[in-house]
Amino acid sequence: MLEYGGLLTQKEIAEQSYLSPRTIRYALNRLKDEDFLQERFYFKDARQSLYGLKNVPYINEALMN
């Protein structure tokens, strides 16, 4: 979702992927721990954040393995 969808909120990711919010949180935390995730302030709703993938050269190689 993040690779093709750009910056999305957790709610948007859950709606588009049909995954539970808990699964989304777990996946985002894993991506954040591996330093693949960028998190930005969401001006429309300060309670939420926008998430996207960082432009890391080795990310595509890591995802393919």
Could you give a short description of this structure?
This protein has 65 residues and is of the alpha+beta class. The protein has helices at residues 2-5, 10-17, 21-33, 59-64; strands spanning 37-41, 49-53.
Describe this structure in words.
With 65 residues, the chain is of the alpha+beta class. Helix content is 48%, strand content 15%. The chain is built from four helices and two strands.
Could you name the key traits of this structure?
48% helix, alpha+beta, 2 strands, single chain, 4 helices, 65 residues
As residue ranges, the low-confidence spans are none
- Calculate the mean pLDDT score and round it: 85
Radius of gyration: 12 Å
Assembly state: single chain
Give the total of beta strands: 2
Strand order of the largest sheet: 1-2
Secondary structure: elements and pairs:
Blueprint: H1 2-5, H2 10-17, H3 21-33, E1 37-41, E2 49-53, H4 59-64
Antiparallel strand pairs: 1-2
